[in-house]
Amino acid sequence: MAKAPQVIRGFWLTFSAMFRKPITEQYPEEKHIYPPQPRFHGRHQLNRYPDGLEKCIGCELCAWACPADAIYVEGADNTEEARFSPGERFGKVYQINYLRCILCGLCIEACPTRALTMTNEYELADNSRAKLIYEKQDLLAPLLPGMAQPPHQMVEGLTDRDYYSGKVTGATPAQILESEQE
Amino acid sequence: MTVTANSNASNQTELISAVIDGIEIRVPKGTLIIRAAEQLGNQIPRFCDHPSLAPVAACRMCLVEIDGMPKPQPSCAIALTDGMVVKTQQSSEVAAQAQAGVMEFLLLNHPLDCPVCDKGGECPLQNQAMTNGRAESRFEEGTKRLFEKPININSEILLDRERCVSCARCTRFADEIAGDPTLELLERGAHQQVGTADDRPFESYFGGNTIQICPVGALTSATYRFRSRPFDLISHNTICEHCSSGCSTRTDVRRGKIMRRLASNDPEVNEEWNCDKGRFAFTHTVIDRISTPLIRENGELRAASWPEAISFAAAGLKGKRAGVLTGGRLPQEDAYAFARFARVVLNTNNLDFRNRTSSDEEAEFLANHIAGSGLNVSYRDLETADVVVLVAFEPENESPIVQLRLRKAVRNNKLKVIAVDSAAAPGHEKLSAELHLAKPGTEAAALSALSDKLKGRNAIVLVGERAAASAGLLSAAVALSDATAAKLAWVPRRAGERGAVEAGLLPNLLPGGRLLSDATDRAAVAAEWNVQQLPTAIGLDQKGMVQAANAAKLDAFLVAGVDVTDVAYHDDFKAALAKTFVVSLEPHYSSVTDYADVILPVGVITEREGSFVDWEGRERSFTAAMHQSLALSDARVLHLIANELGIKFADDAKSAALHKSLTELKSTTKKPAMTKVSAVESAGLVLAGLRQLIDNGSLQNGEAHLAATAREAVAKVNAKTAADHGLIDGNLVVLEAPGGTLVIPVEIAAVADQTIWLPLNSDGSTPLINLGITIGDSVSVKDAGAYVV
Ligand code: SF4
Ligand code: SF4
Ligand code: SF4
Ligand code: SF4
Ligand code: FES
Would you call B232 an interface residue with chain A, using a CB distance cutoff of 8 Å? Predict the structure, then answer.
C-alpha cells in the first residue's frame, strides 16, 4: 500500500473502519451500560435519618461554602406541632440553582450533619431557568421502607444528640401513627 | 516609636507614658490597657469589656503580662500607669498561653451549636477561638453541662444558657444604662446563668440592646431567629422613623426584605443604643400596602393607572378651597414639598402637621421659638447641664434616647432632673427626678415656681408635645427660660415633627423658620419659589380645617400619613372627610383611605431617601434600605399633580434638590417673642395620660413579640382622688364622657389631685377613641367592681 495514491489510502481508512467494533454510546437508550464512576459529583440529595426526619438543619453553611452562590437556604423553628428535623432548627426553604452550580462539592464538605451529599445523577439539563432551580422537594431523599413522612416527633426518649450519634434505627409505631394523622 | 493618643481629653488631662509590646505610648491618665493597645492597632481578645459599661473583668479573656506583677492581669480593668511595661499576646508567650487557657475553659461547656446558632458568622467567640485559642480540643465529648434551651427572658429575647460566657454585659447594660436592674447572674461556677427574679419577664424598653452586645449567641431575638446569616445581609445606614430621638440604625436586608434592625454607633446622638420599638418594629413597612392608584367611583374604590389617578386628583383639587394635613412622620424633604405645594398650587396656608392635641399657642411657640433655632440644645448639652426640667414630657416613653442620656448624666455628672407632669412614671425614678405633680391646666403655675432652682445654673427646659394640651404652659416655659437664662428645647414625639416645623408645615409659618406674617420672609420665600406672591392670610390648623369642612367652608383635603383616631374629634374628622374631596397619599390602607376619593400609593420610609430632623434640630439623613422599590415619594406625586394642573411647582422632586432649596431658605433672624397665653384650669376631675412607647401605634403593626413587651394598661389616681370618687385600688373603674365609656383597672399611685391618668393608645385603654376626649378634658368616673383576670 505504500505506493498507492493518496486518495486510495484515504478511502481505505474509511472502508476498514466499517469492520471495526463501534464505540458510540446509544445515549439515552443505553445509558445504563456506562454508569458514572461511584465518586462522580452529580445532583445533590438531602438525606434523612432512618425514621424519616430530615438531616438538614437549615444552617446555611453549604450556601456559605458555595463558590458559585448556587444555594439558597432559609432556616426555621421546629415547633411542638411540626417537627421536620431533630433539634431546634430545620431547613424551610432549600434551593440549588443548577445553572450556577459547578458541582465542586464544597457544600458537601461544609455540611455539619451529612444532610447534603451528591448522587451520581448527571442529567441536569432543561429548557427553562425555573426548572433548573431545584427546590427542597426535588432534592430530598425518597422515603425508604421503615421511614415515616415528617413532620413528626423524634423517637420517644431520644434527643437530637442521639440522632447525631446514630442511635436511631427506624420509625417507631408512634411516629408512623403521627405521620399518618397529618 | 512614640504614639500619642489623639483624643480631646489629652489637652486637659495629664498624659502618662508606658510601654506596650515594646512600643512607647502616651495616653491620658486613667486609660485602660485594652484601650491603649487598641490605639496601637493591637486587638486584645475580650468578651466582657465594653467601652460604655463599667469594667468588671468577668471573662478573663484579656489577660496580659505586666512587669512587676506575679500573674497575668486583665487588661480591661487596669489603667495604664506611668512607666508601666505591658506585654500582650503579641510579644509574650505567657499572655498568649493565659488567653488560650481561658478560651479552653470557656469552650469546656460550650455547646457545638454554631450551625444552629444565630450568632454564627458574627460571633466574637468563634473568631477569638480561632485567633487566640488552641487548634484542637483536649476534652472528650459527652461531658458538657446541659440546660433547657432556649428560654424566653421576655417575649422578644431568647436565652440559651449553654452558650453564655458569663460576661455580665447584659446585666450591666440593664443596670447601668437602662435602669431596669432585673437581669442578674444567678448561681455559681459551671451553673452560673443569666436570669430574672422568680422567672418574671425582663421588663425593659431597651432590652433588645442586650442581644446586640451579647458576645455570644446566648441572647437572641425571637423575631430574627433563624432568618438569615450575616453573609446574606446587605446593611444600610438608616435613621429610625419612630420618634424624634433620631437614632442612627443599621437596617439589614436579605433579598429585598428587612430581616433586622440594629443600633449604629453615633456618639453625638444614640451612642450605641436604641429602644425596642426602633429595633423590632419594621413589619409595618410591608403590611396592608396599596399596590396601585385607586379612584372612588359610586362609592367603590377601583384600580386606576397613574395618569388617570393624577388627573382625577388634579381635577378634584383645581380651584377648590383646600386644606393640607400631613401628620408628623414625613421626611423633611417631603414635608417641604407639601409646604410649597399648598402655597403655590393650592394657594392656601391651611396646612398642619399636628395630628394630635394642638393649639394656636403651640403654633406660635413653634414658629417664633423653635423653627430655625438650629442645634440650640444637644444631647451633649444634656450631659453637661446642672439641671434639666422636663415639662409635660416623660422621656422614657416619649423620646427614649433622651432618657438614656439623662440617666447617664445623672449617674456620671450628678445632673439634677426636675419633672413637672401629671403623674409619676417609672422613668422618673430611673432619673432620681424631683417630681412636681400638677393637674393638666395647672402646670404653668408649678413651672413658674421653679425659677429659683434654675437661676445661676446651667439649666435646660425640655417641653414635650403634651404641653400643647395645657393653655399657658408653653408661655410659662418661655417665661421661665427668659427669667433664668435656661435653654429651652421642644421634644416632639414623632420623628417628622421637628422637620415639619423647619419645612413650614404650619398655618403661620413658612419654610426655613420664616414667619408668614413677616413681609421680608414672604418675599424671600416667593423669590426662591419663583412666584409673584404667597397667600398672606394665616391659615387654619387641623381642627379648624375639620370644622370648616363640616360647615361647608372647605371643599377638599390633601392628606398624607394621618390616622383619624389620633385625635379626640375623630367623629367630626371622619364627617369632614366624607363631605369633601379627599386626595390621600398613603402607602397603607388607613382610616383616611376609607374616605379618600383618590388614593395615590407612595413608598414607605424604608423605600426612600431623605432626612429627619431630631428634637435637637440635627439633620439625620438616611438612604433607602429597599432601594430597588419603584414606589414614588410624596414629593414626586405632588410634582405630578402640579404638572397636571399646569403650575410650575418645583424644578426637581428629588430629595437632594428639595433639601438644597430648603437649606437656602434658612433664616436665623431672631423672631419676636410669642404672645403670652394665660392658663385655664377646668374644674373637677380631668383626664391625663401619655402614649406609651410600645402601644397600638400603627407603625408597630404586625409585631406580636414586641407588643407582648408593652406595659400593662391601668388607670392611675392618687389616694385622695380615689376616695373622693369612690374608687378602689385594684378594682375596675368606668370612665364616662360625652363620647362614650371606658372600663379599665385602676391603681392608686402618685398622680396629681383631681386627675385620672391613662395610657392614651394602649390595649384596653384608648380614651381618645372610646371617650372622645383628650388630656385636660373633664371626665366622670365610678367604681365598676372587682377586676378578675
Ligand atoms: S457543588 Fe459547588 S458549586 Fe455546586 S452547590 Fe455545591 S458548592 Fe456550590
Ligand atoms: S444541607 Fe447541610 S450545610 Fe446545608 S443547610 Fe442543611 S445542614 Fe446546613
Ligand atoms: S455563640 Fe458563637 S461559638 Fe457559641 S454556638 Fe453560637 S456561634 Fe458558635
Ligand atoms: S447572656 Fe450574653 S451578655 Fe449576658 S452574661 Fe451571658 S454571654 Fe454575657
Ligand atoms: S475582657 Fe477583660 S476580663 Fe473580660
Answer: yes
